[in-house]
């Protein structure tokens, strides 16, 4: 299956799209004005210890203090191995040691310095999450300072290859206090490539150690490369056919980077010089638009509805225009299986994290439920973020969690509507007509106010007045012996309107300020 990576570099942002047979399978965006924290190593100062939370807050020089669990303050090889394998923070689902009150104060007293790495960006009102389990990824290896572990990613399951890699690891020129884990990219790689990778990683660690000795806390000691460089480092494997990039300077940088670990792979990096924007040429732009849509259509005619809230993401599956010639149960199964595949793809593209609830179309057969569950699990294997999926419940709902490392694509690129304030809905013309007539009536009841009023509204509201509410407005004039003049203003929002006294133009009421 042809796999291509398309990189669009602009002054304000860099975008990366991974395509399989032309279909968008992964999408990342990084903006120049937004500082990337995940992967950065800081020398921080402990501000306070919370025994009740089993956590500490660390000043790393940002607006918000970083949060660290007690069990992440003591470096541990198992935790590093899990992170290197694409797992989550700390010990994952394993047992975590509970520290007694005052115990952590003896190990890391308030005011003491600690070297930590960001595992989760600051999201919303929460500060970044950090760990003392340091790891620096290279091309084929992940370096773990302060560890003696020499391991191999569990995703490499061929016994002969694991035996070969163990022999290579045993001969690598590594200091006693620096461990390494072979990444999946190391599959089939020669020893000389590992040696080059070790040399580069040890140079990075030497710089970090120098910073620890010479710079006072809080300070940053290490920052991950930019998005384009991380993409080449992590994605340029045998199954990637081409990497296209539309910026000459970044192209030259990437070619030099690739040449360090593979001269053969250097030819896979191509400079795009076409007249059309690179994302338009590869038909990526249209696909990205679907990432922001609430409704996503399926090939079968069914569709998904995405509702992102602060606490969870609800995904609703609907049959839509699907017309199956089979039985109803078979048609439902067909739509649900396609929906399961698309859900696994969409959560990856949207970078949705936290709790997700998928409301599949009701299936009576346990066998069908299991088939849909397995389809979703299979689709999630492509996801680098850690996921936990529960079987479909008696209510027909599937619950899952997805590791949240950074803000979702929607939160990164969108802001709440200034008019609807994130509700996603505005008042209907009927609701606005009722509200405006109520306000006019209240003003006309006041005998001290002139009854000659001018009402400025959105054109769609005026259209409603003319076609459906004219008699009601005439009745208002008659009841209160007044005169109403209506004016449309296309610049007014649907929910905005203004009532003025016609005699002198004094504003009697303004929506959103009244």
Number of helices: 14
Number-wise, the strands total 25
Largest sheet: 6 strands, antiparallel
Please tell me what the overall shape is. globular
Structural category: alpha+beta
Kindly state the mean pLDDT as a whole number? 87
Structural commentary:
By secondary structure, the chain is of the alpha+beta class. Helix content is 32%, strand content 26%. The chain is built from 14 helices and 25 strands. The strands form five sheets. Strands 4, 5, 6, 7, 8 and 13 form a six-stranded antiparallel β-sheet that branches. Strands 16-17-18-19-21-20 form a six-stranded mixed β-sheet, covered by helices on one side. A hairpin with a 7-residue loop joins strand 20 and strand 21 (397-402). Helix 5 (227-235) packs parallel to helix 6 (248-261) and helix 9 packs parallel to helix 10. The longest helix is centred in the middle third of the chain and has 24 residues, at 191-214. The chain is globular, with a radius of gyration of 30 Å. The N and C termini lie far apart (61 Å). The model is unreliable at 88-93 (pLDDT under 50).
Quick recap:
The chain has helices at 77-84, 103-107, 159-171, 191-214, 227-235, 248-261, 278-281, 285-291, 328-350, 366-379, 409-413, 429-445, 459-468, 470-480, and strands at residues 3-9, 13-20, 23-31, 41-50, 55-59, 66-69, 113-120, 129-131, 136-137, 141-145, 150-152, 178-182, 219-222, 242-245, 269-271, 295-297, 303-308, 312-318, 354-359, 387-389, 397-402, 452-457, 483-488, 497-501, 507-510. Mean pLDDT is 87; it is low at 88-93. The radius of gyration is 30 Å and the shape is globular.
């Amino acid at each position: 299956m042809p796999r291509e990576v398309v990189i669009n570099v602009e002054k304000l942002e860099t975008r990366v799209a991974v395509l399989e047979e032309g279909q968008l399978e992964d999408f990342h965006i990084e903006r120049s004005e937004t500082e990337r924290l995940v992967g950065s190593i800081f020398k921080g100062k402990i501000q306070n210890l919370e025994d009740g939370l089993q956590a500490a807050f660390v000043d790393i020089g940002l607006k918000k203090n970083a949060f660290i669990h007690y069990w992440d303050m003591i470096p541990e090889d198992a935790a590093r191995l899990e992170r290197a394998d694409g797992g989550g923070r700390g010990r994952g689902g394993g047992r975590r040691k509970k520290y007694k009150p005052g115990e952590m104060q003896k190990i890391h007293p308030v005011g003491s310095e600690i070297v930590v790495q960001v595992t989760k960006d600051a999201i919303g009102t929460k500060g970044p999450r950090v760990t003392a389990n340091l790891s620096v990824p290279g091309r084929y290896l992940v370096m773990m300072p302060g560890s003696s572990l020499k391991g191999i990613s569990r995703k490499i399951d061929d016994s002969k290859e694991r035996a070969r890699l163990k022999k290579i690891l045993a001969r690598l020129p590594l200091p006693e206090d620096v461990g390494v884990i072979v990444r999946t990219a190391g599959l089939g790689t020669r020893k000389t490539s590992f040696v080059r990778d070790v040399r580069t990683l040890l140079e990075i660690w030497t710089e970090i150690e120098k910073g620890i000795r010479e710079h006072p806390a809080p300070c940053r000691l290490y920052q991950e490369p930019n998005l384009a460089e991380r993409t080449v480092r992590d994605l340029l494997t045998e199954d990637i056919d081409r990497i296209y990039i539309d910026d000459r300077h970044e192209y030259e940088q990437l070619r030099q980077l690739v040449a360090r670990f593979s001269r053969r792979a250097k030819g896979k990096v191509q400079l795009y010089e076409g007249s059309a924007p690179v994302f338009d040429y590869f038909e990526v732009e249209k696909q990205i638009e679907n990432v922001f849509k609430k409704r996503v259509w399926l090939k079968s005619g069914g569709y998904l509805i995405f509702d992102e809230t602060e606490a969870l993401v609800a995904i609703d599956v609907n049959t839509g225009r699907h017309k199956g010639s089979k039985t109803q149960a078979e048609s439902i199964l067909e739509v649900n299986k396609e929906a399961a595949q698309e859900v696994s793809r969409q959560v990856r593209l949207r970078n949705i994290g936290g709790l997700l609830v998928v409301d599949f179309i009701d299936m009576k057969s346990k066998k069908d439920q299991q088939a849909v569950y397995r389809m979703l699990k299979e689709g999630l294997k492509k996801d680098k973020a850690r996921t936990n999926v529960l079987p479909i419940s008696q209510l027909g709902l599937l619950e899952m969690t997805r590791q949240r490392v950074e803000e979702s694509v929607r939160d990164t690129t969108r802001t709440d509507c200034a008019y609807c304030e994130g509700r996603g809905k505005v008042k209907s013309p009927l609701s606005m007509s009722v509200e405006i007539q109520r306000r006019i009536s209240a003003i006309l009841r006041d005998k001290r106010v002139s009854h000659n009023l001018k009402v400025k509204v959105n054109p769609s509201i005026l259209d409603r007045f003319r076609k459906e509410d004219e008699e009601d407005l005439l009745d208002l004039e008659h009841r209160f012996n007044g005169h109403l003049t209506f004016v449309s203003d296309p610049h007014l929002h649907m929910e905005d309107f203004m009532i003025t006294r016609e005699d002198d133009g004094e504003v009697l009421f303004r929506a959103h300020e009244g």
